[in-house]
Design a protein that fits this description.
The protein has about 475 residues and is an alpha/beta fold. It is built from twelve helices and 19 strands.
């Protein structure tokens, strides 16, 4: 049984689509990762982050269906830069900075085993970038505040990680610095020192496009990322209040930089949703695999890291854009590989049918939209519409677009095989037909589906055509079509 499961995982990776989504000519990317917040907390009507939840989406795109991949933190960070899945130790945030034990490749570079620091042969996004001569840096707040070096800071392999809790003068957390978990990086001291630095260097690097790395991974400290709440160890208000204040200090400087104005993309998201409490969420999306090292990436009997959302800013995005396409941290990695012209997709970023950022996000691919002033909300923009999933009350209500169906996406062909992926906002009976070359075939006939579910159907006709999806409730019907070439 285990051998069969591993074979299926390997096959799923090997037949993943090879064609990259069309992306605009982005040359500089900044990703800022905050901590432990479910989508409703960040973007709901009672959100405590007005700059993040209202001002920034009005300047760019709100990705409403972006999901974490695991609980707790560390596995999400590793997924973003390597595509490696969680194991028991990374799910526990690697209290001991242990070596990864095992190492059998089950397909696509995914390793079978458990532990923290991946062997040298495990590739990362930054290995791919360097192979193409593309620059990168990790900017880690408070990295220089602790004992020892002020770059490339991590525990000794096999030692206890003493950065699991914040100190007044040092709120750096190794587990939020994914680059430290790869021997390919930490074993090359000169390379690591040059690329993994304290966040205080970001301002100087932003001064010109020539000094700005093409890829920047920005990690706030345990207060500024919203991790510690209700208050931080230094007495400041914590949680989302601290995170919103940090973004108001940091994002305008990036938006004002020459590199951003030329060809930049900023993505702000969270590592995971809340793992416990009233806002807990361990949902997954995008047919996320659950193996080979854990059957429950989200914790006991749960599949993922929950719905977290993300905000993207770029001149290639029309202000006020909203995307309902499902994404997760593996999608982020795939999107970065596509952005920088890297044909190889690492780990579960190579999963069959996984979406990368496309026209739903890059709504202004020509880059002709006039950019708003940094930190200012365009006056013509209203707060973005926040679609819900599984919470809409439809009794007695006329069915409108989005009430039943969130998205209908046709995947790229792989060996002449492609699929239609249907994401549901509400439970219904679903019918799916394909029309191509003068023929119409039924892919699903009045199948009962659930709210928030994602369903995939293999296309039976190979010619270009159109998909028609119909979702039916006793009180109404929603129809959606998707053309493909």
């Amino acid at each position: 049984m285990r051998r069969t499961a591993l074979l299926l995982i390997a096959l799923g990776l090997l037949i993943a689509p090879a064609r990259a989504a069309a992306v605009p000519p982005i040359g500089h990317v900044w990703v800022v990762v905050l901590e432990n917040t479910s989508y409703a907390e960040s973007f709901g009507p009672d959100a405590k982050v007005p700059y993040f939840s209202r001002d920034l989406p009005a300047q760019g795109a709100l990705l409403t269906q972006y999901f974490g991949t695991t609980h707790f933190s560390l596995g999400n960070y590793l997924a973003m830069i390597s595509g490696q899945p969680s194991n028991a130790e990374t799910q526990a945030d690697c209290q001991q900075f242990s070596d990864f034990k095992g190492g059998v490749d089950v397909g696509g570079g995914v390793l079978l085993g458990s532990g923290c620091v991946q062997p040298t042969r495990t590739k990362t996004l930054v290995d791919q970038l360097e192979a193409k001569g593309i620059s990168w840096k990790g900017y880690m707040e408070d990295l220089a505040n602790g004992p020892g070096p002020d770059t490339c800071r991590h525990p000794a392999v096999g030692a206890r990680d003493t950065t699991q809790s914040a100190k007044v003068s040092d709120q750096y957390a190794t587990r939020h610095n994914p680059f430290m978990y790869f021997h390919s990086i930490i074993d090359d001291q000169a390379r690591c020192d040059a690329h993994v630095v304290d966040a205080s260097r970001l301002a100087d690097d932003l001064a010109s496009a020539a000094t700005t790395p093409a890829f920047s991974f920005v990690t706030p400290n345990l207060c500024d990322d919203g991790h510690d709440e209700p208050s931080c160890v230094d007495g400041r208000p914590g949680g989302l209040v601290a995170a919103d204040a940090y973004l108001q200090r940091t994002i305008p400087a990036i938006l004002a930089s020459p590199a951003y104005k030329a060809d930049g993309l900023v993505l702000v998201t969270f590592d995971e949703a809340e793992a416990s409490g009233p806002s807990a969420d361990s949902a997954s999306c995008c047919n996320q695999p659950t193996g080979p090292n854990t059957t429950s990436p989200g914790g006991p009997l749960t599949p993922g890291g929950g719905r977290i959302g993300a905000v993207a800013l770029s001149r290639f995005i029309t202000p006020g854009t909203t995307s309902t396409v499902p994404y997760n941290h593996y999608s982020f990695l795939r999107s970065m590989e596509d952005t920088f012209g890297i044909p190889e997709h690492l780990g579960y970023a190579n999963q069959m049918g996984l979406a990368a950022f496309g026209g739903d996000v890059y709504s202004n691919p020509a880059g002709t939209t006039e950019l708003p002033m940094p930190g200012m909300t365009p006056p013509v923009q209203s707060p973005p519409v926040v679609p819900t999933c599984g919470t809409t009350r439809l009794r007695g209500k006329r069915i409108a677009k989005g009430d039943l169906l969130q998205s209908v996406v046709v995947t790229d062909p792989v060996a002449k095989v492609r699929y239609v992926r249907v994401s549901m906002a509400h439970g219904a009976r679903l019918s799916v037909t394909q029309t191509a070359g003068g023929r119409t075939v039924t892919l699903a006939r009045r199948t009962r589906v659930r709210a928030c579910g994602q369903y995939r159907y293999r296309l039976r006709l190979t010619k270009a055509g159109r998909i028609k999806v119909t979702a039916v409730l006793p009180t109404g019907t929603e129809r959606r079509t998707a053309a493909y070439r």
